[in-house]
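Record type: ASSEMBLY
Status: queued
Input:
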Amino acid sequence: MRGIEELTEANYEFGFSTDLDTDVAPPGLSEDTVRLISAKKDEPEWLLEWRLKAFAAWQEMEEPDWAKLNIAPIDYQAISYWAAPKQKPVLDSMDDVDPDIRDMFDKLGIPLHEQKMRSNVAVDAIVDSVSVTTTFKATLLEAGVVFCSFSEAVQDYPELVKEHLGSVVPVRDNFFAALNSAVFSDGSFCYIPKGVRCPMELSTYFRINSMNTGQFERTLIVAEDDSHVSYLEGCTAPQRDENQLHAAVVELVAKDRAEIKYSTVQNWYPGDENGLGGIYNFVTKRGRAHEDAKISWTQVETGSAITWKYPSVILQGDRSIGEFYSVALTSKHQQADTGTKMIHIGADTTSTVISKGISAAKGQNTYRGLVKMMRSAENARNYTQCDSLLIGKECGAHTVPYIEVKNPTSKVEHEASTSTVGEDQLYYCRQRGMNEEDAMAMIVNGFCREVFNELPMEFAVEAQRLLSVSLEGSVG
Amino acid sequence: MLHVENLTASIGDKPILNGLSLDVGAGEVHAIMGPNGSGKSTFAHALAGRDGYEISGVATLDGADLLEMEPEDRAAAGIFMGFQYPVEIPGVNNMYFLRTAVNSVRRARGEDEISAREFLKVAQEAMELVEMKQDFLNRSVNAGFSGGEKKRNEILQMAMMQPKLAVLDETDSGLDIDALRVVASGVNSLRGPERSIIVITHYQRLLDYIKPDFVHVLVEGKIVESGDHTLALHLEEKGYADFLGDPDAELSGASA
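Status: finished
Output:
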């Protein structure tokens, strides 16, 4: 028999922390903090103004309380808003990466050495507040694709950043987006020029390492007419007793006939089995789809103590397509309130929402989704399917769909189901020789099949494995 | 091979099996018949290890104590149960399920996992046995299957698992005559000197296709009568009245 401790450890395999020489700003948030961050990054005046405007807006806003989440009060003055590993800020070659950081990423399964890298995936590696390196930058540039840290983009492509920053998620959009706009430190920037199919998968790996710091990253992807890109993100954090704040903003712009596929495997530290520690994950993700464009969100959310996240699509252009495929797993004391918003503006726009919520132990899982058909959305269509799976007797699943229809020609379908992992299913598998944990993993993976099918192959394998690991100890 | 002695099973304070004893030798086919509620399915589940029963008595397979084992260990020991109501597992590919099952049992026995190629070959043969089409392997386990397909899938699994003892619980229920013929011929081709089979059924009909060596009548959780296949014919004609202590049955004077 395995002890509780062993099971808990097995549950979160990325809980280690790395001793890096880090430059950390003292805790606290004021206009000076915003100026400090902007100065650290040597930002142009317009961006500082933009941040200050956001900060002023944020000060007048209140934390949203409509989500079905039970959150201990967050002291925004107790958090440090800047933590950067001390190393040379600009890197031309992988060999310049601090060996400790390289080792850390090796341990996370993300090799940054030239010879060990996967040949079809470019990686932007972000530790705490800064990007430490981006691989395959030169190769991508040959195809015209820009893939770099947000900070570099501000220096090297200021016009592109200025044009699109805040164009999909305005600074006043919500409390956490405003906070992010004021203090965001780094993130990834991708630009795919007209007619280009990005030759490899782009990915960003986020790692929170320092204590008592928040991570506020900003990602912007711009896909010009007729272009195509597939982007992946992964995230982990050390196991600590304190809650840590992560508030990100992601903006996608898909111009005419462009396609952006955005996949997330979120595995922030979820806290322990008593609900101690874990990441508070408040994320605003939104894309704008122009004519005949397609934006597809796929997310596998297994980590974080709190998840508050609604990747959305503004279907602005006629015939644009929005998709949202989600697996959210809450175990231990985890709480997730997640879903999507599909805003249909253009005619003949279509959206598909497939959400799979899994609740185990004392986990609480809420699907919250909005489908909005504007007056101009002639013949628009939406199909939504929300399935919840319950494991055990102390967890909860909730579905909160909002549907607003202002155009009588549009069509909205919503299906929802709730089921439990049946004793019958487990018994059937065990009679065929499988042990209880393997059987549970198989049944849960089957439940998520439709979503996993949307993930790039390697991510799908990783997601299945993660799900099995996260469920360990939740049976029997 | 299988030795069962004075087996009792109850749920809460409701007794279901009341001292059932049975010996099944290698290569033998035994039929267990009985009226509704007599404990036939409970007997099958007691052998397979389903949770929720309080069990006492003895049940061993080749001397190994089954009652001490988890269901998966019993499967590894060689017990296969054909379910009366096969369970649906949406999203899990039938082939993946079969391969996981076969490999789980192999691992538990300390054998190497089956190669993809070998597995496909064996699966192909097993599918011919139960007249299943190719696309069958790519569908989700039992999800959206017809009654006949579910039962054929059970026999397909039996063919893949190669059990020592197969317990087939009302494999004939819900089958039309064609499906019954396919399922029965599948079972027959899996008969062998090293494999024992217990067929649980309401009706003698199935036994026209699967000829048992022994027939037992189960009433109120006990075997009250055993004989050869003629006993089944007798039951078909007279029903279970003789064994139910029904006064009308005694009047009819049927010999027992």
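Annotation: Residues 2-252 of chain B form a domain with the Rossmann fold fold (CATH 3.40.50.300).
Annotation: Chain B is about 35% helix and 25% strand.
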